[in-house]
Task: structure prediction
Amino acid sequence: MSQAKVDKYKKEKYNRKHNKKKGKAKKIFARVAVALVAIAFIIYLGYSLAVSTGLYTPPTSPVTMSKTELESLRQQLIQQNDPNVQGVETTATMDTATVPSTENTTASAVENTTAAK
Result:
């Protein structure tokens, strides 16, 4: 029995350096794994927060429309007097009838404030 204990001690002593290196490697691996999981969690939280607040909108698949659908959409926007539609010539009578000029609105605002005083 005592010889078995001595043999066990000798094997343990022989492998002591190897076991220390193995233990250090396990500690380093565990720390790296925890750091990667923490970084992944922080990135997920940041992404979720950005999407929920509207700072980032994930890309959507492109919408394909035929030329006739595009032209009908363009005509609807022109009828709604959308200023972002390109290539639309408007007449001066339409502009004055639908949208007051800034000079008129500024002058009327000044008149209203002076009349109130």
Notes: The mean pLDDT is 79. Helices lie at 2-14, 16-53, 67-79, 92-98, 102-116.
